């Protein structure tokens, strides 16, 4: 066994919530106000000289502003960093239908934004599960009042803060009903040095979230649950949008959709890595469709689905979960290798081979397989030495076998887990 240090987030419930709620509310409102000031400043500079200020420039502009002093200096810096990151993300989309980051305001009310305290803004007591969060200079009500918020908490997971190497940041996050704490920690984990000898390939998609090829076995993960949530909550959001933007119900729908998507991706990536570990996989090759949003215009609905496709988040989840199991993950540029058009058996390439969305028929060797599993097998070939040069040494014919009829693993909304689809026998 060897030790590795990785970054993890530990969520915690605040046990003295009634005592600290008002202070956390005022800081959450202050973070929204500072965001709005930064957004207004960006708008003015943008209109005047056609330049969008980055986070460092915003901080320089607003250090002397009254709203900057409502939070600890590092917390104010983080709010402006988030705003800068939001503008970068919007700009890189290059989507004419996408709107730039807006103001955080509902009528005359400011929502509760997440507040982050960095190393100089908090003091942690792991023995008694307490943390002192520094108040902003403008939040100190009197000379004799404490200049910090004292939160008592209980971790929501089995991992306690006594087990971590160090805590990098503390975030106060409003869940819609109450505040909770998120501790970003460096954690030491034990990684087995006895890796397996097998390899796996993963193809990511919109309809089927993932297809996994592990030699003589393939797994298919449909994205039905994710698409159903996206459809339902998008209508909930749009149907309640008024002249002043989304209503409170619309904001709830957007947050609910994001939470359910995050849970789905965690459950999916966990199951993928567990299935690979059980089969002694040493290396995973995962397709990275990094430029797919810029490659072509997929139409209004197609572009929207691609925008909602969180492939980068799923890859990141697979990487860090695999790391804990001692499994290597390599990103493969699927566009360069043309994994969707190439036959995984003989290596021939033709657009016509993919006759339907889920069916691949090779005109050269007559292989009949699931199209996503074919792409996953091509991914696996990039990290499997024995399969290099397969055009001269074809793989065994697996038509109507595991590549044509993969094992389907479905996400269960009731249990929140992924499991093998039940086979109904006549």
Number of helices: 10
Any idea of the CATH topology of the largest domain? Nucleotidyltransferase, domain 5
Largest sheet: 7 strands, antiparallel
Poorly predicted ranges: 388-394
Shape: globular
CATH superfamily of the largest domain: YqgF/RNase H-like domain
| Helix-and-strand structural type | alpha+beta
CATH class of the largest domain: Alpha Beta
Count of β-strands = 16
Q: Compute the average pLDDT.
A: 81
Distance between the termini: 48 Å
Order of helices and strands: EHHHEEEEEEEEEHHEHHHEHEEHEE
CATH A-level architecture of the largest domain:
2-Layer Sandwich
Fraction of residues in β-strands: 15-25%
Q: Return Rg in Å.
A: 25 Å
Estimate nothing, just give the exact number of structural domains. Answer: 2
| Multimeric organization | single chain
Biggest β-sheet: strands ordered side by side in the sheet: 2-6-7-1-5-4-3
Helix residue percentage: 25-40%
Write a structural description.
The protein is α+β, with helices and mostly antiparallel strands and 426 residues long. The protein has two domains: 12-181, no CATH class; 198-420, Nucleotidyltransferase, domain 5 (2-Layer Sandwich). The protein is built from ten helices and 16 strands. The protein has helices spanning 17-49, 55-62, 73-93, 224-238, 248-278, 292-295, 299-308, 311-324, 334-337, 371-381; strands spanning 2-14, 115-117, 122-125, 130-134, 148-155, 166-174, 179-191, 198-204, 208-213, 218-222, 281-287, 328-332, 359-361, 368-370, 407-412, 417-420. The strands form three sheets. It has a seven-stranded antiparallel beta sheet. The chain starts with a strand and ends in a 6-residue tail after the last strand.
């Amino acid at each position: 066994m060897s030790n590795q240090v990785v970054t993890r987030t530990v969520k915690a419930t605040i046990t003295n919530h009634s005592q600290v709620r008002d202070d956390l509310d005022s800081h959450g409102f202050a973070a929204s106000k500072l965001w709005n000031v930064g957004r207004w400043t960006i708008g003015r500079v943008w209109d005047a000289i056609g330049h969008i200020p980055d986070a460092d420039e915003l901080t320089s502009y607003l250090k002397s502003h009254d709203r900057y002093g409502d939070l600890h200096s590092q917390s104010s810096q983080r709010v402006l960093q988030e705003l800068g990151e939001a503008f970068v993300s919007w700009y890189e989309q290059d989507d004419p239908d996408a709107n730039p980051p807006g103001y955080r305001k509902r009528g005359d009310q400011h929502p509760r934004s997440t507040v982050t305290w960095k190393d100089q803004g908090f003091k942690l007591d792991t023995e008694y599960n307490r943390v002192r969060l520094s108040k902003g200079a403008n939040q100190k009500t009197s000379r004799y009042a404490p200049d910090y918020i004292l939160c008592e908490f209980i971790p929501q997971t089995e991992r306690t803060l006594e087990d971590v190497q160090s805590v990098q940041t503390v975030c106060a996050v409003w869940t819609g009903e109450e505040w909770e704490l998120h501790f970003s920690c460096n954690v030491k984990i034990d990684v087995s040095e006895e890796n397996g000898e097998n390899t796996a390939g993963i193809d990511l998609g919109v309809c089927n979230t993932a297809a996994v090829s592990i030699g003589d076995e393939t797994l298919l993960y449909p994205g039905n649950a994710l698409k159903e949530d996206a459809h339902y909550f998008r209508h909930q959001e749009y149907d309640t949008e008024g002249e002043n933007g989304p209503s409170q119900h619309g904001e709830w729908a957007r947050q609910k959709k994001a939470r359910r998507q995050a849970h789905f991706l965690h459950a999916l990536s966990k199951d993928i890595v567990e299935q690979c570990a059980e089969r002694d996989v040493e290396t995973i090759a995962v397709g990275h469709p990094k430029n797919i949003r810029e490659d072509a215009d997929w139409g209004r609905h197609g572009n929207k689905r691609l925008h909602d496709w969180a492939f980068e988040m799923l890859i990141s989840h697979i990487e860090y979960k695999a790391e804990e199991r001692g499994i290597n993950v390599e990103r493969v540029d699927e566009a360069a290798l043309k994994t969707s058009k190439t036959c995984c058996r003989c290596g021939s390439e033709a657009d016509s081979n993919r006759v339907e969305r889920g069916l691949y028929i090779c005109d050269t060797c007559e292989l009949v397989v699931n199209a996503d599993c074919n792409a996953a097998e091509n991914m696996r070939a990039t990290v499997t030495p024995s399969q290099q040069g397969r055009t001269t040494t074809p793989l065994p014919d697996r038509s109507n076998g595991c590549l044509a009829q993969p094992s389907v693993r479905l996400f269960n909304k009731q249990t929140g887990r992924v499991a093998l689809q039940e086979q109904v026998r006549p």
